[in-house]
Amino acid sequence: MADDIGAQLAALDFAAVSPAEFARLVKGLSAQQIKELASDAALRERVLREVFGRMKQQFKPESAGPLDALIRWKITGIDDAVYETRIADGRCEVTEGRSDAEPRTTLVLADADFLKLVSGNANPVTMFMMRKLKIAGDVGLASGLTRYFDIPKA
């Protein structure tokens, strides 16, 4: 079954998939299926790049106000993928990789948990309480991150 879904996802043009469609796709997958799909390094990289690439478009500057913060994301799986989100001056910039800058908060999640979170299919507070989401640094900032982005609901 994961092979069929994997083949469908591998052929998918992620740029043509709306955030709501992506949320529905993720909702239909179990954590185990996502873990199996994420074992394909090329597919995992494509999905992560697309998700982080969309953060800029999903950003709600009116909600961020004067916020100035660097958020580091560490997604664990076959290897660790690191992305950074800089929110400042009403803008959101995303970079791949770890910079030398000190983040205000760092979020650590497994592949499946990350996809469930960014697609609106998981509650960040519940994830934190269940230790599926680890936070270092400013927990208050981390707990409010969802209000700065237009997160689809599946």
From TrEMBL:
This is SCP2 sterol-binding domain-containing protein. Signal peptide: none annotated. It comes from Streptomyces solicathayae. Residues 60-149 form the SCP2 domain. InterPro entries: SCP2_sterol-bd_dom (IPR003033), SCP2_sterol-bd_dom_sf (IPR036527). PANTHER family: SCP2 STEROL-BINDING DOMAIN-CONTAINING PROTEIN 1, STEROL CARRIER PROTEIN 2 SCP-2 FAMILY PROTEIN.
